[in-house]
Specification:
Blueprint (H helix, E strand, L loop, with lengths): L5 H28 L10 H30 L2 H24 L5 H26 L3
Helix pairs in contact: 1-2, 1-3, 2-3, 2-4, 3-4
Length: about 130
């Protein structure tokens, strides 16, 4: 399956890069704002970076299985396309939240809708296969 889903593999690598980027931003924020581990609060800008990282991790855990199930049971192109939209929404969310929390909703919504579409496609693909089609 992996070798037949190169687009989905590429999106997966980009998602891993986003997760690395959010972790790096938290580490950099710890240094910039003097927040010593294990503390996760102290400066509002650091707290936003931390929430971006945690929220992205929370959503990635749900999105990645749906992404690959969609690729396996529906199509590499569909999975990668929806995964790319999810990724774009998460980047939008991350940048907006780090700058001004009130601006995060649009990026969050794009990511959430892409996740929902991935979940529906993945579930529909599995159901279709279980029904023998």
């Amino acid at each position: 399956m992996l070798s037949t889903s190169p687009l989905t593999a590429g999106v997966t690598l980009l998602i891993a890069l986003l997760m690395f980027g959010t972790a790096f931003a938290v580490g950099k924020g710890r240094h910039r704002y003097g927040i010593e581990a294990p503390a996760v609060s102290g400066h509002p800008a650091f707290e936003r970076l931390y929430r971006v990282q945690m929220n992205t991790l929370e959503w990635a855990i749900m999105t990645l299985p749906c992404l690959w199930i969609c690729a396996a049971y529906v199509s590499d192109v569909v999975a990668a396309g929806l995964g790319g939209v999810w990724l774009a929404g998460r980047v939008w969310y991350a940048v907006a939240y780090a700058r001004e929390p009130a601006l995060r909703a649009k990026g969050f919504t794009v990511g959430a809708l892409a996740f929902g579409a991935l979940g529906l496609c993945a579930g529909g693909g599995v159901l279709w296969k279980l029904l023998g089609y």
